[in-house]
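Illustration: Histidine acid phosphatase protein.
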Amino acid sequence: MALKNFLFALATAPLASAETILGVYMLHRHGDRTSKSYKPVNLTALGADQVYDSGNYYRQRYVESGADAKILDLSSDIVIPSQITVQSPIDSVLQISAQAFLQSLYPPVGDLAVQELANGSEFSYPFDGYQYIPVNTDAASNDHSENNEWLQSGSGCGNALVSSNSYFFSESYKELYSETQDLYQGILPVINGTFGAEEASFKNGYTIWDLINVALIHNKTISSEELLTESTMTELKTLADTHEWNLAYNASSEIRAIAGKVLAGQVLTHLNNAISSASAKPRFGIQFGAYATFFSFFGLADLPSASSDFKGIVKYASSMAFELFTDADPVSESSWPAEEDVKVRFIFANGTASSSNEPQIFPLFGLNEGEISWTKFVSEMQKFAIINDEQWCGACGNTTGSCAAYVNTVGGSSAEDDDDDSKSGLSVPVAGVVGALVALGVILGVEALVMVFGGIRLVKKGVGATENKIAA
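Result:
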């Protein structure tokens, strides 16, 4: 109860008037989309509106002149590209969500951006001064697509994939699989256009819930809808939460949370740049991503100790942000705050951020502190953050492709150990190939175990309409 009262006080406390926001890094989920069961997955009009409304809220919080949490020196009306960086995997749902968000973060400026040419003629950007903000694509996360039913499969991290798959032959998984068979078989008339009797199980707990959830939002009629009682939907959602949480995070196997580790490194890099000087750019970093990244970071940062809600799949258009700020006054190039005067707070909005659903402050790392010092924040984040490619390759056990450059350091070896190659009889290139084959063998072995112990078979899913299929 004391923690709940503490969190409520944090969420409702006004920002200190003397605060200066030095930088912000945000992770934002996409808006409403079509079902993952049918490809391609597309952002809906509702989804675009959700992220657009969220962008409007954050404009009022960080961008507008006179905003309570105005980011230092951030242009209020006409965007300056060097001040803001936006990132998304190569995925239409996420990229279009980013574009819709930016439309309201920096709306059209009308005549404010009129340019006069040497001959005296004047021009303004199309669509009443529409502002074009680049959305950078992350080539390393090309497969982090909403078309993937489980995004870990696109992470490219061998050890993370093996760790996630190990959940499928854990005792807790097998118990839930057995205990929930009647539930999933009972709703088969609702989903039998997409999932057969053998597929209607906890193994597909997330995609089954996702299919039904999308249908309830968009379909006027659903086959055997009377089976979808309130208690049934609550149970299906809880099982989907459990399914995805265990694939995204495990305290005894933190490599499973590779997405959260990489996010932590991106946050540290961005905020460390923002704290460097008054002229540092960019100050506002925005990344669009999927629920799995939220989940894995929540686990790493021990956010479930603040609220059990952090173990539930975040809603469409949810957002979390790290605000870097100082109480020192004034802040300028000549009076830049010392690191000990800089703090960080974490805020989170489950669903579209708005005046009626404002982001709340939550304590990170199991601490009872809504604001922590920059040095403490760095110390805690560095315990699990992955900052560079070499760290990623080492943690993932990858030794081929771009990771081949770090083959002498992956796994703790170094260039000083080169002579060991002759002792083992393996050259560095050969060792890399063997490592890749071993990793592949482990992955295939785990998947075989999943199929044997999970009661799963490989099937080819049709994309075309069927008689009883729930339309996405």
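Reading the tokens back as a structure: The longest strand covers residues 20-29.
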